[in-house]
Design a protein that fits this description.
The chain is mainly α and 107 residues long. It contains six helices and two strands, in the order ααααββαα. α2 packs across α4.
Length: 107
Amino acid sequence: METTQKENLRTLHNLKDQKLYIRVYDEIRTYIDKNQLKPGDKLPTEMEMCQMLGVSRNVLREAIKSLEITGIVASKPGVGILIRDFNADYFMSSLLHSFPSQDDRQG
């Protein structure tokens, strides 16, 4: 194998190191797709999902927060976690707000 190829292989990341909340995020996305959930449909309760996924409430909440930031779900106290209608404007706005401003980078 050429040196360049070996160097490129070093840039691959071990998937075991992937954060648990990201794996939960992916699992919930798969659940939504497989069950063909539509905007307004509810996900199982936090307690049910923690049991189904075998994770703590904190890990689940991190994953749910990521799903909210990307505009996939909306968490409504007393109602539950609802599937949102995809909105590109909301997604782009959330994405832009996740980057530090120029002032933050300079100071």
